[in-house]
Design a protein that fits this description.
Layout (H helix, E strand, L loop, with lengths): L1 H9 L2 E3 L3 H6 L4 E5 L10 E7 L2 E4 H6 L15 H15 L4 E4 L7 E4 L2 H12 L4 H7 L2 E8 L4 E7 L16 E7 L1 H6 L1 E6 L2 E4 L2 H16 L3 E10 L8 H4 L3 E10 L6 H10 L3 E5 L4 H11 L9 E2 H5 L3 H7 L5 E3 L3 H13 L4 E5 L5 H6 L2 E5 L5 H6 L2 E3 L4 H38 L11 H12 L1 H6 L25 H25 L5 H19 L7 H4 L5 H19 L1 H7 L6 H28 L2
Parallel strand pairs: 2-14, 2-17, 10-13, 14-16, 15-16, 17-18, 18-19
Antiparallel strand pairs: 1-19, 3-4, 3-13, 5-6, 7-8, 8-9, 9-12, 10-11, 12-13
Helix pairs in contact: 4-5, 8-11, 10-17, 13-14, 17-18, 17-20, 17-21, 18-21, 20-21, 20-25, 21-23, 21-25, 23-24
Length: 613
């Protein structure tokens, strides 16, 4: 497990709890966030929309940006007024900042949440520098974003130097700006800004706004809305109920966060491996569905469940749907917990990603809690079993593959060790029934265990992935470690090893050879080396996998062979182990008979390939 954790670290997966290494190999469902895990977390503002009039940011930049932050004259340029107001709201109601790159002076990058960073980059490109805006409209109060409200509100002192005659906040001391999910904003909105005035939010305007929102979302865009509210006085405190009401809706901002190019292949690997990827996001259902279909997580006809639907759903109803739903949108952290529990109740082994403080319960409950190393909070990392250092979905799949390899190698180690030990037991147990003296001395038994269970056994844990390891369904972690024929292998191969070794020993002892015990000692040791080479794969022949595909094991086998020859021929070791030098013919006979176990296991694998597909 420790060696596996080291290998996973090289793949950007930090294992915090060793048992998770084994559990990873049994995962049947991966519940993953969208932003930053399935996508590149490289948000870019592409579209601005005010009352159904869509403006591409690239077009604005290509044709020259109007003086959006100048003294706004709605009579002369109402559209520019609305665009300017939209950009100003997005930049002021924002906790990100621009910083100059130390490596490339003159170039700036955003610090903070990627979504907010994209907004201030766009505002800077359109002539509104956030640092200057913050000086002119200092923040005096704020209501932070929460996943339940899906919006954020800040209150700013009005710039007295600006022309107040035509400004939307004329005669106001402060103005509240709000940004967030469009449907969340419309709940607290009573009016819509239209060029030079606020007009009532009619059913027609509401429908127009939602249609624009849906159209952007269907194109895979993440959509945010912005609103404002002039305030006569500076608020005494940031009271959500008092500030987030009677807002004036400004417009929509569409952003693109492209899917990671490697994720589509990782999703296909998951599906081939019997693992179902599920997207869980706070984004609009249409946005989530579009990205999910592009990545192959969702297919035509499959619908997304929303957080609102989940909140109204009983546990039994959710259990009946949870195996069919590929996308959950507009969810909050408590919904993640419900999804995990429903999947576990259906018998699934669930891996769940999360990065926020409120994700901790879901991460703790999941069979494998996966925290984000870049964007994750300390609380989420403490609750998780594994931390993704690169926040990449493909890393989860690589870790699961590594988990399967490790579980397979644990079984190989157990199979090898118990088979070898049972062979020794058979030799010691049955020899007296044949009238023979003890075939092995205590020190010889210790030597066999040292040279066979030590380096060769450890080297088996370094065995690379078997062919098709990600083309089979996962094994349940409650499965008996001795399942799938391991007991039978241990019994019959151990018996074969004992019979071959004891048969040779009985023949040599009956013939009066004084080296019979050394022949037993050598044959049993080398039989275990043949077994170690044969059990490297449960199905494939050693001649297919190749000797050099696990160089440490090959080295351990060769070293054991050399040490065994030293125990037989080196005078000092002969005295210690009570051995005698074997004539070449006897050594050759021991070597030849020790290969019977190897050929027996190879025959077993051939039978599996021929009769089990």
């Amino acid at each position: 497990l420790a060696l596996g954790a080291q290998r996973m670290l090289k793949r950007q997966a930090l294992i915090r709890k060793l048992p998770a290494v084994e559990t990873l190999g049994s995962v049947t469902v991966i519940c993953s966030d969208k932003t930053g895990t399935l996508t590149e977390n490289r948000m870019t503002v592409t579209v601005l929309d005010v009352l159904g009039e869509t403006q591409s940011v690239d077009t604005l930049l290509d044709h020259g940006v109007p003086a959006l932050d100048a003294d706004l004259s709605p009579a002369e340029k109402p559209h520019a007024c609305s665009l300017g107001l939209l950009i100003k709201a997005a930049a002021l109601c924002n906790d990100a900042a621009l910083a100059e790159s130390a490596a490339e002076p003159g170039r700036f990058h955003a610090i903070g949440d990627p979504t907010e960073g994209a907004l201030i980059v766009a505002s800077a490109q359109l002539g509104m520098d956030k640092a200057q805006l913050d000086k002119r409209w200092p923040r005096v109060a704020e209501i932070p974003f929460t996943s339940e409200r899906k919006r954020m509100t800040t209150v700013h002192r009005v710039d007295v130097a600006a022309d107040q005659t035509d400004a939307p906040w004329r005669d106001s001391a402060t103005v509240a700006f709000c940004k967030g999910a469009v449907d969340s904003l419309l709940v607290i909105t009573r009016q819509v800004w239209s060029g030079d005035e606020a007009v009532p939010l009619t059913a027609e305007l509401h429908e127009r706004i939602m249609a624009a929102n849906d159209e952007l979302a269907q194109n895979g865009q993440r959509v945010l809305g912005a609103a404002f509210r002039p305030l006569a006085d500076e608020p005494d405190n940031a009271d959500e109920a008092a500030l987030e009401q009677d807002m004036i809706f400004i417009g929509l901002i569409g952003m693109m966060d492209p899917p990671r190019p490697e994720v589509k292949e990782a999703v296909q690997i998951c599906q081939t491996a019997g693992i179902r990827p599920v997207m869980i996001t706070g984004d609009h259902p249409l946005t989530a569905q579009t990205i999910a279909q592009e990545l192959g997580i969702s297919h035509n006809g499959q619908k997304a469940l929303t957080g609102q639907q989940l909140a109204q759903m009983s546990p039994d109803t959710l259990e009946s749907l949870v195996e069919e739903v590929p996308v959950y949108a507009r969810v909050s952290p408590e919904h993640k917990l419900k999804i995990v529990q429903a999947l576990q109740d259906k018998g699934h082994i669930v891996a769940m990603t999360g990065d926020g403080v409120n994700d901790a319960p879901a991460l703790k409950t999941a069979d494998i809690g996966i925290a984000m190393g870049i964007t994750g909070t300390d609380v989420s990392k403490e609750a998780a079993d594994m931390v993704l250092l690169d926040d990449n979905f493909a890393t989860i799949v690589a870790a699961i593959k590594e988990g399967r390899v490790i579980y397979d190698n644990i079984r190989k180690f157990i199979k090898y060790t118990l088979t070898s030990n049972s062979g020794e037991i058979y030799v010691m147990l049955f020899a007296p029934f044949l009238g023979m003296p003890l075939p092995l001395l205590p020190l010889q038994i210790l030597w066999i265990n040292l040279v066979t269970d030590g380096l060769p056994g450890l080297a088996l844990t370094l065995e690379p992935a078997e062919k098709g390891v990600m083309r089979r369904s996962p094994f349940h972690p409650q499965e008996n470690i001795f399942g799938r024929g391991m007991w039978q292998h241990i019994l019959w191969v151990g018996l074969l090893m004992g019979i071959v070794t004891l048969g040779l020993g009985y023949w040599a002892w009956s013939a009066g050879r004084d080296n019979w015990q050394t022949m037993v000692f050598t044959t049993l040791t080398l039989s275990q080396m043949g077994h170690a080479l044969a059990v490297r794969s449960g199905r494939e022949s050693l001649f297919t996998t190749g000797l050099r595909s696990n160089v440490p094991l090959l080295g351990a086998v060769l070293l054991t062979f050399v040490l065994q020859l030293a125990a037989v021929y080196a005078p000092f070791l002969q005295t210690l182990f009570k051995t005698v030098g074997l004539p070449p013919a006897d050594l050759a006979l021991s070597l030849l008979l020790s290969t019977i176990v190897f050929w027996g296991v190879e025959a077993e694998k051939w039978f599996k390939r021929r009769h089990q597909g």
